[in-house]
């Protein structure tokens, strides 16, 4: 199903990727507790030309966010410790991050989207997702909600 | 009229004495001689025959008196012939035979008594019997009315002469008990009648003895095969008369047919017993409340539910069962307006109640208004739903957790395979690429299956919420077609969709709209023959927009049509493509459409394909 985008990934081990610059070079802060999924998302976003910094917990994200200066937050909803909404709230209140936030959720109920938006997100991406379509989706969201760089 | 005054016999001294004695009698008296001529009459006689008093002079014949009375209309012959009457009356007069009764036209009844004296003279005595005549008539009429009433009421009178040992029954009673057939000699109002069932007979007999010996009231019920038919219930009462020596000499009373009443009583008692059993043994708490909100009844289940004994709540205000705390958690006064129960009539409501121990709990309550005499009462059935709510919550958590736990690894698999097939990790040789494509297609299918199963669970539990908005149907349709392009491509099927320009606004949950269409379209792609085409179009139908998806498949077998929208519906076919899903796609599509006030239906021709229609309300406002 995935459409061939003709892109290739060149930095498979890169936790702090972004070495490849094929797109906007927009900075995505990813918080996802499942390591495999995190790796795939990082891979997909890097392939799409984003700079990505990923964290396994909300707490880690809070300590590393200011230095990174993200353009978009992609945050899992259900996580041990701080969950998605709490992480976003802390990023805004304690770190002063204003970038738009997108939820990443395995409870993909369309009807829950309104609730997620109320929790401070501009959009929701359901799991499972098509990794090859993820960059395009985020670019659309950035166009609609992002601060122009 | 002829009077021959010349031939009167001389007025004797005796006559004068007699006349003097008679003149003051209260009865009317007249003396006639042997030739039936009037010798004299007293004033009372004159008054009685006032219409002819002018003729009542000595010498007038009895016959002349009779004829003149008739002539002057003072005597009522009751339709009989005058000559016959006169002849008969004269014969009686001469024979002085027995008393006779006559009615004068004035309405006065007189009793006439005549006596021949040794002298040959006749004394006629007339007594005014009007009063007793009237009483007799009244009595006769009253008796007739009484009999009629008795018959109508299914009642009758009996009279038992204990000395003679005879028993008489009023005609209505005879008719009621025996019809036209003569009874076997009935005995003691049934106390010895073998037709009366033995237990009733025993009861009658002892009651009768108690009455006759100890003067206890006699009123009993017994069964009797009235008119030789089935046993009917009767009620008998009686009262004896006792001689000074204490022996009963006579007893009389009535018997009333009470069969209908007994039958109604039995039915009522049966119903009452049934209701009582239900009330006592119901697992649900039941209570009744009067219009003033006072508790009338409280069943054992209600006692268990609230922790109060029935005796402690009956008669008290129903508000005492209300919650102890308000929704804000603050203590509240436990009173309830009488209207509160009224408002709950006819539906099942959920509310809160308070137990005796001070705890509050959620209940389900249904209230019915039941007629009870002058006022209606409210019958309330209550059910503790605390446990159900706990289960619901656990289930919600479970579905949510399962959904999360299944989707996360699936997301990793789909994502990893997606990156490979997407070329993110570089070109891979053709054979591994083919296998990876299969793995990816199936992981996607598995993900959809998980979604369908979760959706089905939520639809069934009525817990699937929608985010209804106004959307442009053509954009949503185009998106679905685009998403299904890989499948269409693989099967070599062209999807043709060329909507007329302009926005086709619908009121729907956008993602559920797409889910419905995805189900219809992917079915069409699966079942159409290779290298054919699937057509998608939309039309406006009243307040709905209808989206149709036409395939070029085999059509739907007759046997499958009725259950095609059922859960886990699968056609009995060996077609491998149909085995692809859990059989939930169309079920979910239809249910989702219904939840959005739309519908899903189909037309099919076996051998040439099907068209599925999805109707959805037209959107009013601007496109979202």
Helix and strand arrangement:
The complex is a heterodimer of chains A (149) and B (624).
Chain A: E1 27-31, H1 35-47, E2 51-55, H2 58-68, E3 72-76, H3 84-93, E4 101-105, H4 110-118, E5 123-126, H5 134-145
Parallel strand pairs in A: 1-2, 1-3, 3-4, 4-5
Chain B: H1 13-23, E1 28-32, E2 38-41, H2 43-48, H3 62-71, H4 82-95, E3 100-103, E4 109-116, E5 122-128, H5 130-153, E6 155-161, E7 166-169, H6 171-178, H7 198-214, E8 218-225, E9 231-242, E10 248-257, H8 259-281, E11 285-289, E12 295-298, H9 300-306, H10 310-313, H11 339-342, E13 348-354, E14 360-372, E15 375-384, H12 386-421, H13 430-460, E16 468-472, H14 473-483, H15 485-491, E17 494-497, E18 505-509, H16 510-527, E19 533-541, E20 544-550, H17 585-595, E21 599-605, E22 609-617
Parallel strand pairs in B: 17-19
Antiparallel strand pairs in B: 1-2, 1-5, 3-4, 4-5, 6-7, 6-10, 8-9, 9-10, 11-12, 11-15, 13-14, 14-15, 16-18, 19-20, 20-22, 21-22
Write a brief structural summary.
The complex is a heterodimer of chains A (149) and B (624). Chain A has 149 residues and is of the alpha/beta class.
Characteristics:
heterodimer, A: 149 residues, alpha/beta, 5-stranded parallel sheet, globular, B: 624 residues, alpha+beta, 5-stranded antiparallel sheet, 17 helices, 22 strands, disordered N terminus
Written description of the protein model:
The complex is a heterodimer of chains A (149) and B (624). Chain A has 149 residues and is of the alpha/beta class. Chain A has 5 helices and 5 strands; from the N terminus they run βαβαβαβαβα. Chain A has helices spanning 35-47, 58-68, 84-93, 110-118, 134-145, and strands at 27-31, 51-55, 72-76, 101-105, 123-126. Chain A has a 5-stranded parallel sheet with strand order 2-1-3-4-5, sandwiched between helices. In chain A, strand 4 (101-105), helix 4 and strand 5 form a beta-alpha-beta unit. Chain A is globular. The termini of chain A are far apart. Chain B is α+β, with helices and mostly antiparallel strands. Chain B is built from 17 helices and 22 strands. In chain B, the strands form 5 sheets. In chain B, strands 2-1-5-4-3 form a 5-stranded antiparallel sheet. In chain B, helix 5 runs parallel beside helix 6 (171-178), helix 13 crosses helix 17 (585-595) and helix 14 crosses helix 16 (510-527). The model of chain B is unreliable at 1-6 (pLDDT under 50). The interface between A and B is medium-sized, with 34 and 36 residues.
């Amino acid at each position: 199903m995935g459409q061939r985008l003709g892109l290739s990934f060149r930095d498979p081990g890169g936790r702090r990727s972004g070495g490849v610059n094929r797109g906007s070079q927009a900075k995505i802060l990813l918080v996802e507790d499942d390591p495999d999924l995190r790796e795939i998302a990082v891979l997909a976003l890097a392939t799409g030309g984003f700079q990505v910094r990923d964290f396994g917990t909300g707490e880690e994200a809070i300590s590393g966010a200011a230095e990174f200066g993200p353009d978009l937050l992609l945050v899992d909803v259900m996580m041990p410790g701080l969950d998605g909404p709490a992480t976003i709230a802390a990023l805004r209140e304690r770190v002063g991050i204003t970038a738009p936030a997108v939820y990443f959720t395995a409870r993909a109920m369309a009807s829950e989207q309104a609730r997620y938006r109320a929790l401070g997100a501009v959009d929701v991406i359901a799991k499972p997702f098509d990794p090859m379509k993820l960059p395009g989706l985020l670019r659309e969201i950035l166009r609609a909600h992002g601060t122009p760089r | 009229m002829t009077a021959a005054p010349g031939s009167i016999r001389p007025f004797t001294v005796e006559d004068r004495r007699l006349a003097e004695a008679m003149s003051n009698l209260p009865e009317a008296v007249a003396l006639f001689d042997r030739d039936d001529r009037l010798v004299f009459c007293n004033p009372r006689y004159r008054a009685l025959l006032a219409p002819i008093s002018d003729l009542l002079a000595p010498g007038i014949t009895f016959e002349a008196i009779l004829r003149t009375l008739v002539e002057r209309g003072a005597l009522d012959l009751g339709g009989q012939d005058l000559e016959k009457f006169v002849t008969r009356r004269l014969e009686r007069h001469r024979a002085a035979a027995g008393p006779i009764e006559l009615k004068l036209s004035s309405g006065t009844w007189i009793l006439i008594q005549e006596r021949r004296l040794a002298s040959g003279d006749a004394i006629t005595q007339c007594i005014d019997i009007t009063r007793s005549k009237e009483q007799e008539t009244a009595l006769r009429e009253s008796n007739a009315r009484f009999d009629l009433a008795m018959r109508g009421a299914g009642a009758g009178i009996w009279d038992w002469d204990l000395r003679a040992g005879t028993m008489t029954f009023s005609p209505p009673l005879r008719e009621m008990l025996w019809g036209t057939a003569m009874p076997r000699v009935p005995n003691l109002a049934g106390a010895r009648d073998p037709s009366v069932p033995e237990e009733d007979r025993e009861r009658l007999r002892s009651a009768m003895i108690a009455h006759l010996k100890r003067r206890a009231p006699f009123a009993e019920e017994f069964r009797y095969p009235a008119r030789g038919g089935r046993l009917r219930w009767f009620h008998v009462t009686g009262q004896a008369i006792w001689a000074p020596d204490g022996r009963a000499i006579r007893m009389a009373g009535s018997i009333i047919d009470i069969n209908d009443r007994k039958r109604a009583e039995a039915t009522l008692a049966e119903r009452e017993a049934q209701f009582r059993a239900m009330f006592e043994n119901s697992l649900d708490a039941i209570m009744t409340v009067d219009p003033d909100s006072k508790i009338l009844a409280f069943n054992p289940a209600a006692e268990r539910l609230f922790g109060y004994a029935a005796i402690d709540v009956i008669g008290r205000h129903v508000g005492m069962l209300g919650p102890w705390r308000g929704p804000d958690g603050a203590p509240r006064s436990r009173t309830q307006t009488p209207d509160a129960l009224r408002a709950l009539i006819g539906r099942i409501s959920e509310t809160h109640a308070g137990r005796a121990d001070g705890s509050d709990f959620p209940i389900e309550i249904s209230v019915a208004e039941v007629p009870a005499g002058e006022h209606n009462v409210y019958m309330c059935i209550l059910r503790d739903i605390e446990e159900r709510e706990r289960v619901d919550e656990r289930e919600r958590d479970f579905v949510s957790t399962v959904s999360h736990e299944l989707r996360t690894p699936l997301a990793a698999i789909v994502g990893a395979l997606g990156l490979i097939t997407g070329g993110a990790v570089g070109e891979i040789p053709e054979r591994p690429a083919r296998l990876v494509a299969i793995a990816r297609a199936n992981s996607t299918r598995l993900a959809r299956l998980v979604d369908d199963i979760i959706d089905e669970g939520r639809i069934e539990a009525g817990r699937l919420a929608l985010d209804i908005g106004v959307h442009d149907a053509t954009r949503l349709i185009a998106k679905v077609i685009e998403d299904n392009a890989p499948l269409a491509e693989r099967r070599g099927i062209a999807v043709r969709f060329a909507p007329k320009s302009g926005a086709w606004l619908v009121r729907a949950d956008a993602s559920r709209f797409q889910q419905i269409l995805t189900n219809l379209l992917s079915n069409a792609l699966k079942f159409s023959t290779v290298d054919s085409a699937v057509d998608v179009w939309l039309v406006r139908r009243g307040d709905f927009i209808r989206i149709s998806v036409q395939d070029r498949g085999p059509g739907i077998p007759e046997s499958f049509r009725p259950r095609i929208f059922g859960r886990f519906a699968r056609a009995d076919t060996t077609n491998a493509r149909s085995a692809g899903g859990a059989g939930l796609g169309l079920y979910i599509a239809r249910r989702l459409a219904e939840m959005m006030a739309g519908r899903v239906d189909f037309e099919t021709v076996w051998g040439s394909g099907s068209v599925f229609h999805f109707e959805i309300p037209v959107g009013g406002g601007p496109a979202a």
